[in-house]
Automatic annotation (TrEMBL):
Entry keyword Magnesium: yes
Binding positions (substrate): 81-84, 103
Substrates-to-products reaction catalysed: 4-hydroxy-4-methyl-2-oxoglutarate = 2 pyruvate; oxaloacetate + H(+) = pyruvate + CO2
Family: Belongs to the class II aldolase/RraA-like family.
Domain of life where this protein originates: Eukaryota
Purpose: Catalyzes the aldol cleavage of 4-hydroxy-4-methyl-2-oxoglutarate (HMG) into 2 molecules of pyruvate. Also contains a secondary oxaloacetate (OAA) decarboxylase activity due to the common pyruvate enolate transition state formed following C-C bond cleavage in the retro-aldol and decarboxylation reactions.
Pfam family, one: RraA-like
Keywords, alphabetical: Lyase, Magnesium, Metal-binding
Residues engaged in binding Mg(2+): 104
Protein name per Swiss-Prot or TrEMBL: 4-hydroxy-4-methyl-2-oxoglutarate aldolase
GO biological process: regulation of RNA metabolic process
Organism: Carya illinoinensis (Pecan)
């Protein structure tokens, strides 16, 4: 399979960009993990300062998928840590994108998986399973 860059995808699809169907991550995401580039079918979750649903999904076989977690952009705690990332790596996930924070950065950086997040934060998330929802299982790649 030939490598296609994000810039090439954007250049080839201006109508999808103007219609809001194609978007690129803002450049405020930090890079963690050993994979600098990753892609795969996307699963999207929406959570807020609670990581129970995130952990449940990463316990599944990843089959090269990418988990996108809309954490509401919270910078008050981490919704992803080293243990779930190790599990995701072992279960075959290609990557994780978090609109929120991660922790255990040294452990994550040792994993053969791609992780993007807004920042790192030492405090862990709640584990109450209060408001997490599955948004979509999409066959698009990032």
């Amino acid at each position: 399979m030939a490598l296609v860059t994000t810039a090439e995808v954007c250049d080839a699809n201006p109508q999808l960009i103007s219609g809001g169907e194609l978007r690129a991550l803002q450049p405020n995401f930090q890079i963690y993990g050993r994979r600098q580039v990753f892609s795969g079918p996307i699963v999207t979750l929406k959570v807020f300062e609670d990581n129970v649903l995130v952990r449940e999904f990463l316990e599944e076989k990843g089959d090269g998928r990418v988990l996108v977690v809309d954490g509401g952009g919270s910078l008050r705690c981490a919704i992803l840590g080293g243990n779930p990332v190790v599990q995701a790596q072992n279960n075959g996930w290609a990557g994780i994108v978090v609109n929120g924070c991660v922790r255990d950065v040294d452990e994550i950086n040792g994993c053969d998986i791609g992780v993007r997040a807004l920042a790192s934060h030492p405090m862990k998330a709640n584990k109450k399973d209060t408001d997490g929802i599955l948004i979509s299982r999409t066959e698009l790649s990032v």
